[in-house]
Amino acid sequence: MTVSNERKSLPLPGGHQKVLLHSCCAPCSGEVMEAMVASGIDFTIFFYNPNIHPRKEYDLRKDENIRFAEKFGIPFVDADYDRDNWFARARGMENEPERGIRCTMCFDMRFERTALYAHEHGFPVITSSLGISRWKNMQQINDCGIRAASHYPDLMYWDYNWRKGGGSARMIEISKRENFYQQEYCGCVYSLRDTNEHRIAMGRERIRLGELYYGQTPAGNEDTPAGPSTDTTS
Ligand code: SF4
Q1: In terms of pTM, does the model score above 0.90?
Q2: φ/ψ of residue 132, rounded to 5
Q3: Which domain holds residue 129?
Q4: Partners of 44 in the beta sheet?
Q5: Is the CB of 98 under 6 A from ligand 1?
Q6: Per the domain annotation, does 206 fall within a domain?
Q7: From the CA of 7, how far away is ligand 1's center (Å)?
């Protein structure tokens, strides 16, 4: 598969040309992947998201990401679903709001594993699709990425803003074009709980896993994935 070469070439930090891309899901990483392909960047996808619950949702998100990576022939590392460790680290933070300390832990955990893999496999740069969603706090994500990379002298975190230059709009376009699975909550069991509570309070139905796909959703409901449970626009 090829992509438009009308995009601006992306400058990698340190003059490097090889990146380990932590991917959270296909809708968020679609634009990031196409931007890197258009720039001729040598990258590998690293899927490590033990936060996603339940297993059915995890498999849906991962399989969608694998399907898209295969279209481009991009290497895909399917890392461990060690959700027991995720729950152990989340203990005591069950009722924290999105964008709070539980999310910092969640980003830290995913970046720590990404940085370790990068260090052990000769990747000089890591980055992530996590920050492309407008629902996320980009500074919070970048702080976690920088912190994880700082443990290795040979590793840099690339804090590129994937939303800019039309990135946010292309993310939705690609999602519709590819009919990606459209997740309706951030990922963990607590975000599922809080999103359902919010929807019920707003007179909406509970989330039904595996039912929504971009390009098939009602007009006005094709937003970036995983809006926060407490946002009245979600
Ligand atoms: S709300 Fe999202 S980022 Fe925050 S802990 Fe849950 S899965 Fe992780």
Answers
A1: yes
A2: -75, -25
A3: 16-170
A4: 20
A5: yes
A6: no
A7: 31
